Predict the structure of threonine-phosphate decarboxylase.
Amino acid sequence: MSEHGGNVLEMALKIGTNAENIIDFSANINPLGMPDSLKTAIVEQLARAEHYPDVEYRQLHSALARAHHCLPENIMAGNGATELIYAVVHYLQPRTALLLTPGFAEYRRALQRVSCQIHDYAMSEADGYQPDERLLDVLVQLRPDCLFLATPNNPTGLMPDTNLLQAIVRCCHQYQIALIVDEAFIDFLPDAPGLIPQLADFPHLYVLRSLTKFFAIPGLRLGYLLSGNLAGIQQMKQQREPWTINAFATLAGEIILDDQPYIQATHEWLAQQQRWLYQQLCAIPALQVWQGCANYLFLRCLRPEIALQPALLQHHILIRHCANYPGLTRDHYRVAIKSATDNQRLVTALKQVFSHG
């Protein structure tokens, strides 16, 4: 089983069809597609492919710095946020780490690569798959070298309590625990400020951002890491391989954060479709659904005799099976929120699966 969503080709081969025939709800990509501003820029600047990108990515870092009101020296762009997870772990060389489960698989893989001892903080249905004050106690007792925290969480789509998040930031600062906060999906939350404004006050804080999901450019791959630890950012830049970001991903980062019409349209689409799909899924008795705030929903199938992913695949719909997330079972799934038409097809297919199951 793939560690990630979006493996449409493998699933299409399983049922003997073409990948284009499958509606992919397993990868959380904006259904509005790549911004027209970027498409136009790529066509107009195709000649960029004929030159090496600036190995320092100066224009890209300056554009990201303008967007977040910080210095270019606070930022390291990368080939998707995943490259930067490995970069920050390689830089920190933690001996011990705390991971919240369920959580994104690459945190664990990056930590294992440096032979780090990993402690799990298990979130469960009983606590709503949310951390609580107990996490602060664990941090004080364990004193790990680093903590990974996703806001919102993947796969649940849930945001931790604001006051608790601030308490975690202060606790990690007090005990010099490197806090790596993954904000890969926070752009989908128009009212969430995130932690970037606090970087100057907390030098042990590292914030991961992704442009892949919100701007629908998974094939280009672009993310970035921000920190008030300027020496650390500089060292990570020196340790990396050259030219990990291609010319068109660089171009994307230079222009798309200024595309306010696209950003506004995305927030309007999500506000409407998130509410609609959540309500429709909640109305299906065989499902338990969590009210996430990102562009995907986390659910549990209450009919364990039905394997939901292969059942929906027969309807040419692919959803993310969450059985390989630590702490979850074969009955847990994640579905992206897509266009109104695709969301309707998902709901219809689910009703058919459960009526015949």
The radius of gyration is 20 Å.
